[in-house]
Amino acid sequence: YVKCGFAGENFPTSVFPCVVGRPLLHYEESLQEQELTDIVVGAACADLRHQLDVSYPVTNGIVQNWDDMGHIWDHAFYSELKVDPSECKILLTDPPLNPVKICEKM
Questions:
Q1: Cα separations in angstroms, 18 against 26, 29, 63, 68, 90
Q2: What domain range is 11 assigned to?
């Protein structure tokens, strides 16, 4: 799960599953009445999981898929927190034995 919020708050503003989904081809035609984008993130992805190719960008606390992690971060900032990350200070947490190369990439 992703937990995000603002400094000074006692609890996270938002908590959502760290999951990204893309529509399966054989479901695209049956979903025309529903609004389904190319990328579905978080709880919306969990709700439509049977119609999506689901990806978990983080395994054991280590980012495995950086493109999908970017979608997770975009969802957290723009959809959940409704802030522009370029105008904020950001604190990310990672596992204590996370490789330095991955920490630098974050």
A1: 25, 27, 11, 10, 18
A2: 2-105
